[in-house]
Every structure is written in C-alpha cells, then in structure tokens.
Design goal:
alpha/beta, binds pyridoxal-5'-phosphate, 9 helices, five-stranded parallel sheet
Length: 274
C-alpha cells in the first residue's frame, strides 16, 4: 500500500498535504518517491531548507551534537551549542540583540506578540491582509490569507486590526505606482482615527516580503514608513522572517536588505533597542 493510503487511516483530514507523494529519500534539491522517481524539490521544506537535504556539514554537526546529548532542556540547564548559536546570532545582528529560541514559526510569532504586549502593556496588534503567520490560536488571529485557517475556531485573540499590504502590482487602493502618495502608509491615519488609538497598539506585525500572500515585494518606502509610524507612537515593529530570513533575500535577514531595523524578528526572536 502507498504511503498516502496508509496515512489516510492514521492522520486526520485537517492535517492535509498538498500532494500525495510519498518520499523515501532526499538529496540536495532532489527528492525520490516510492518508485524511486526523482523530483526537483521546489517546496524545500516550505522555503526553509536553504541548503537542500542532507548537506554534509549540517548532517555532521547534528550527528556530533546527538552524540553529546539529545535533550537536556534549555529551560532547565545551559549547554554549549545553545549559547554558541545565540552568541553567533547576536554578533551577526549587530551586537545589541537578544535571542529566544522556539520550535516553530508560529511559536515565534506567539512569543513576539507576547513580548510586545508585555513590554508596551498595550492590548492591540495590527496585522496585514493576505498575511500568513501560523496555525496556533494567536497566529491564526493575525493571519489574513485564507478564512479556512480560522473557520470554526473563533472567537480568536481580540484587538487585532487589519491593514492593507503594499502591493504595487495590484494596489489595494487602486493607485498607480509612483503616483500613489503611499496610500499604504497613509491608511494608518484612518486606522488610528477610526479604529484604534495608536497608544493602544502594542505591535505592527509584517512579513518584509509577503509569502503566502503571493510573494509580494513591497516598495522600499513601505517598511521604512512603518518603522517611522512605530517610532512616532511607541509601537513595536515585528518582522516575521520565517520565509525571508537566513539569506533568502541576499542578506542574512530581509531587515538588512530593506535597511529597516525591527524590534522583534524571525522565528528566533531577536529584540533590539532601536
Ligand atoms: C511567513 C510565515 N510565518 C509563520 C509561519 C509558520 O511557521 P511554522 O509552520 O513553523 O509554525 C510560516 C509557515 O509557512 C510562514 O510562511
């Protein structure tokens, strides 16, 4: 029986897959199915497997770590690789950052929202339409790409407000690039006047390039403008770099590519004083 048929019996329909492929081997950018047919792996672990599968030095590092310890619990003790990686990330992100490791993108975004609320003591979060931030309760609340993610799970986290993303190709404000007067930034005047006072907003969370929303690259002025709005009102700027981080836009983080420093970013949360 094919893996797909076996899986149907033991996994609930909610845990669906976008293909019925059963993969038995993966090497670099190729995966092989049950009949050894070779496929070019465009999924790349959903945009996170930057070096492909089984990259030798990565495999070696994992093996070495497993020989030393498997799980000692970072909330119980400290251990060398845990500290070394955090030190490296701080060094690579300017030296004024701090790191929190979590298990997934969704958990990182949960942590980012909690951190923003805790630091600011404010209740509200502004997210963007067509965004994807995860499948947990809080991250579904700030995900605007598909109603299926939230169907039957409401009520979700309250005090989430929605903004339009900067899409110059299909401008949500019906404007033309270059003569739009940055309506995507101006919209915040209306949000703050009609919907939520900026003093009540803990964070604006944004993908520097919107992934699931259609791989939308915003104009340079957009992220810089968000930074300015956040500075003006004491709002924390969160970059969800689950899809853009670790070299995918040319720099280590999209924050470098766009030259905008967020307060909290990526699936390893890194908080900076800006
Ligand atoms: C931009 C973005 N944020 C968050 C997530 C959620 O990450 P995870 O599936 O690791 O929870 C994803 C997953 O695809 C993502 O693309």
């Amino acid at each position: 029986m094919k893996m797909y048929e076996r899986a149907k019996k033991v996994f609930p329909p909610a845990a669906g897959r976008s293909t019925t492929l059963g993969i038995t081997k993966a090497e670099g950018c190729y995966v092989y199915d049950e009949s050894e047919k070779k496929y070019l792996d465009f999924a790349s672990g959903v945009a996170v497997n930057n070096l492909g599968n089984c990259y030798p030095s990565v495999v070696e590092a994992i093996q070495k770590e497993l020989q030393q310890m498997i799980h000692v619990g970072h909330n119980v003790v400290y251990y060398p690789s845990y500290i070394k990686l955090a030190e490296k990330l701080v060094e690579l992100t300017g030296g004024d950052t701090m790191v929190y490791f979590s298990n997934s993108g969704a958990e990182a975004n949960e942590g980012a929202i909690k951190l923003a609320k805790y630091v600011t003591r404010r209740p509200a979060v502004i997210a963007f339409k067509n965004s994807f931030h995860g499948r947990t309760m809080a991250t579904v609340s700030i995900t605007g790409s598909n109603s299926a993610y939230r169907k039957y799970y409401e009520p979700l986290m309250p005090s989430v407000y929605w903004a339009e993303y900067a899409n110059c190709y299909r401008c949500p404000f019906g404007k033309e690039k270059g003569c739009c007067d940055m309506a995507c930034l101006k919209q915040f005047d209306g949000i703050f006047e009609k919907l939520v006072d900026p003093e009540c907003v803990a964070a604006i969370i944004v993908e520097p390039i919107q992934g699931e929303g259609g791989y939308i690259v915003p104009p340079d002025a957009f992220l810089k403008g968000l930074r300015k709005i956040c500075n003006q009102h004491g709002i924390l700027l969160i970059f969800d770099e689950v899809q853009t981080g670790v070299g995918r836009t040319g720099s280590l983080y999209a924050s470098e590519t766009f030259d905008v420093k967020p307060d909290i970013f990526r699936e390893t949360l890194i908080k900076s004083s800006h």
